[in-house]
Amino acid sequence: xxxxxxLALLLVSIIFAGCSSxxxxxxxxxxxxxxxxxxxxxxxxxxxxxxxxxDESNIEEVKKVVDQIDSIERPDRTLSEPPETFFExxxxxxxxxxxxxYLWMQPDGGAILMDSSENFFEADEENTAxxxxxxx
Length: 136
Prior knowledge:
The structure is a single chain. By secondary structure, this protein is α+β, with helices and mostly antiparallel strands. 30% of the residues lie in helices and 39% in strands. The protein has three helices and seven strands, in the order αββαβββββα. A seven-stranded antiparallel sheet has the order 2-1-4-5-6-7-3. Strand 1 (24-35) and strand 2 form a beta hairpin. Mean pLDDT is 83; it is low at 4-20.
């Protein structure tokens, strides 16, 4: 009977390993920019990842905020300054970036976000505070 117990435990372990999550991680980084020739706009060249957040509650908070942000027209005033931060939802098991955003804080406590397709979004003060806390 003992070998059957070992076999059963082994099978249960294999089943649970196959049902694991996608290995979601929030990667946070510093944007790299260069000045444009006209000096009225910065050019985002990329980013350097400085932190990975694996806490599931923080990941869920970021995903909720991203679902709630509103699409807006391209805000010229925002692009004259470099973004404060970069963040992405990354599935490490699949090596896939689900979404990527650059974030500019606004004087009113809200934020402007730009995704990897250069679409712009606006987060209100409450969602921005949630993002800031989750990305720390």
